[in-house]
Description:
Layout lengths: L3 H11 L2 H13 L4 H21 L5 H22 L9 E6 L7 H12 L3 E4 L6 H10 L4 E5 L3 H4 L2 H10 L7 E5 L5 H7 L3 E2 L3 H11 L4
Parallel strand pairs: 1-2, 1-3, 3-4, 4-5
Helix pairs in contact: 1-2, 1-3, 1-4, 2-4, 3-4, 4-5, 5-10, 6-8
The structure holds CO-5-methoxybenzimidazolylcobamide (B1M).
Amino acid sequence: MESYFDTISKAVESGDDKQVAKTAREALAGGVAALNILEKGLVPGIQALGKLFKDGQVYLPEVLISCRAMGLGVEELRPYLSDANIHNKGTIVLGTVAGDLHDIGKNLTKLMLECGGFNVKDLGVDVSAESFVTAAREYNADIVGMSALLTMTMTYMPEVVKALGVAGLRDNVRVMIGGAPISREYADEIGADGFAADCASAVDEATRLMGIG
Ligand code: B1M
């Protein structure tokens, strides 16, 4: 019999939002942990779709339909990932950098950070260095988190690090980066303090950066 994970993954890949939501509910009712459903069902589904997109077997409309199905699945899981009693570990200003419109990974990272006890201010996509600096100041951020999915836009990350320095915020604000083309080496190279390869480890990394892990 096909597992919940396979069914969800295939449904995300084919953009069948009703199937995604239904199977996610069934898996939760069957005692499967929400994080497992996310990591073993939803994420592999969008990754499989990504491969088809890369190979030219599907086009942008299909990708957007799958993104919507993934979003519905995440909404089903959200209440089970959160812990209403967790205290605030710190404030994180989060966004996808200028020129980049990819937000699925950033949104998952936001969800996990919130579930992990952080207060997250989401600036959305296509965020300029100036907006990161303004928000970091306004919210008295402990961490600025940046996401990038394009090799063309990851090069904007050092601009933000520089702008935080020019604004005199760099001593008090840690910088954490992530996204498919990002690595620990790149974080070191541009003077970022932290890097996470996936949304679950983003919580550990942010906790480490706060000095409370
Ligand atoms: Co785009 N796209 N896309 N796309 N897209 C990629 C990224 C690409 C690899 C596809 C390909 O050609 N192989 C390619 C980039 C190539 C490159 O730069 N090397 C690409 C391209 C080229 C483009 C366009 C230029 C296409 C075009 O128009 N010709 C265009 C650019 C638009 C722009 O941004 N200016 C474009 C557009 C789009 C859509 C709008 C159609 C859609 C985005 C919808 C949306 O996000 N709302 C889209 C999608 C969906 C993809 C793929 C298929 C999937 C990306 C994704 O969501 N992955 C992608 C192909 C692929 O990845 N295989 C592709 C799943 C997500 C969960 O992973 O974001 O890596 P990810 O997040 C992970 C971790 O990285 C980490 O946690 C997440 C979960 O574990 N993480 C962090 C992410 N951020 C973090 C921050 C942290 C810590 C961890 O700390 C702050």
